[in-house]
Amino acid sequence: MTESRADAIGTLLGGRQLIVVSNREPYEHRHSRRGIMIHRPVGGLAAALDPVMQAAGGTWVAWGSGDADFEVADEHGHVRVPPRAPAYTLRRVPLSDDEVDGFYYGYANQALWPLCHLATQHARFRQQHWEAYQAVNRRFATATLAEVAGDAIVWVHDYHLTLCPRYLRQGRPDVFVMTFWHIPWPAWDVFRICPQRAELLDGLLGSDLVGLQHPRHVAHFLECAEQELGAQVDRDASTVEYDGRLVHVQAFPISVDAAGLEQLARSDGCERWMARLRERWGLAGRLMVLGVDRLDYTKGIPERFRALEVLLQRAPAYRERLVFIQKSAPSRTQIKSYRDLQRRVEDEVGRINAAYGTEAWRPITYMPEALPLDAMAALYRMADVCVVSSLADGMNLVAKEFIACQVDHRGVLVLSELAGARDELPWAVSINPYDAEGFAGALRQALEMEPEERRARMEHLRAYVADHDIYGWMTQHLQSAGRLLATRAASHWLLDHADQIRDRVTGRPLALLLDFDGTLAPIAPSPELAVLPDPVRETLRRLAGRADVLVAVISGRSLDDIRRRVAVDGFVYAGNHGLEMTTHGLVWTLPEAESTREAIAQICRRLRARLERVTGVLVEDKGLTASVHYRQTPLPQVEEVRMAVLEEAARIPQLAVRPGRQVLEVWPGVAWDKGRAAGAILERAFGASWSGQVTVVYIGDDRTDEDAFIALREP
Fold this sequence. Notes:
- This protein is α/β, with parallel strands linked by helices and 715 residues long.
- It has four domains: 1-94, no CATH class; 258-466, Glycogen Phosphorylase B (Rossmann fold), CATH 3.40.50; 472-590 and 672-713, 3-Layer(aba) Sandwich (Rossmann fold), CATH 3.40.50.1000; 597-668, Trehalose-6-phosphate phosphatase related protein, domain 2 (Alpha-Beta Plaits).
- 45% of the residues lie in helices and 19% in strands.
- The strands form five sheets. A ten-stranded mixed beta sheet has the order 5-6-4-1-7-8-9-12-11-10, sandwiched between helices. Strands 15-14-13-16-17-18 form a six-stranded parallel beta sheet, sandwiched between helices. Strands 23-22-21-20-19-28 form a six-stranded mixed beta sheet, sandwiched between helices.
- Helix 5 packs across helix 6 and helix 14 (373-382) crosses helix 15 (397-405).
């Protein structure tokens, strides 16, 4: 990780302590013939978060699963990691074998895992497992609270610790808790199968911020909270009001350490492994198709073998031309459904190899053994095609690991449309894993793709993953946390300075002119998610109740939108940067802007049609103006958005384009801005000589507010 990224994460933390809480630990100490050895997991949550924690510092609370873990830890379960360059503290939580059986192999992986992956035929809800799950969640919460010193951000991870946020809230009501749920969140009709659904929702809603992988999962979570708990849900703001608190729910698609994986793929160790594996598998002159998975019924491994068999039947020329390498680590073998799957997969490998193989060639090479990190990078780099055929997946980091290791830009990603990663990676070849014929056709398309198209697709994929890596994912979390913490601070500031505001109005009126996004409400990933915190609204109501105070909200939002979001009577509201205003029931619109309404509607229709296939873009028709938001658009597509807006606006002479913060504003070609709007409000309220009669306070955070600063400085 670069120094600048480490500094950026430190800045976002603002001196606060970071505590990560997860079931799996990033480093295990195990006994071996050579003494105590360190084992690091390959892939998954622990591997993804370790580089982030090395940058951020702090404490990681996790189950001490290694058989030598507590021999190297102090009496409180603390050990500094990584071993060669300690950067943070690992706090290990001890669990007995019975607790692991009930909590991990029982409720977490026989109830929640199949429930959330739509595999309800595997779900088992046993009371003794639930009791163990509750007890272990309390154990984790107690261990975490012991680590909290002063201001802290506690970051709880995944379905193993659903109840932990509520227990943390009970122990420390002041601590900021954010939870990230790594697996899919099911729709209400599926979630309601769970007998403990209310307790699970109550546990998660102990958080201040709940993160999920995909906007679809956010929608499902909101519906479940509403249906099961009767909580007040605001879908526009993406919030849940429950138990006297407001919980924010947001999508944060997880990623990988792209730069670190690329460095590994370019290493000498990776090159040596590539040479070794090519020779071992006889890959000279052959194509390599790769699958990398835990052995899990959600990964679609039998489905991909069926597609391979269809390909070999439909296109026999591929016999002896390709090798399918399936790297599948055994997983959760204490659970019968996993043992059954392992037998099924191994039987399928044997059957297909016997049916289609020859003395010199086997279609499938099955690898259950563990490999070091540089060998895994070699697999990804060597592959002509990587197959991710998930039947359900929150994200699937294998897809992104493959992309990051494809330094030669020659591989093709075949990706299930049922994996969360699919919507982020539109340059992959998409499959429905249940459609064997279509799946086989996609494999053939990938294998026969021209080198130029392979390179172009992979360049897009690599640019996206590099720009949306694990550090960007953490940055999004901390920015959201910072905004929520800032709203606490903002409401406290308004309350703490109420007396000073009263002092300012003694003898002369006060005009308080306020921006909305970023000032009254935190900046949100998309406009509909912004929400005015209740304490801020209450403070504004107190000010609005004074006869000698004028409060005006001047926003780029439409007039109707800003009035609805603030919802305080007696204010002056100015929408579309002041092109339209209202106070005491009177509405005023700049006549020149009114005449361009149809032109604005027309360009919105054109842009929506033109940008329909661009990920993350939002065309917002605000009546007198339009906003084209690209905050969530992949970097390679941003220029396409900009060019579309500029070209379409150029076709309509009465419109102009103004750049903003990850937004392009389409405007009527009139000389108007927030400065002129502020002047008009003050003149209407206090007359042409307002500057000598009123104290003006303007608060804003955007470049559009600078027009007001200039205008009010020199009336």
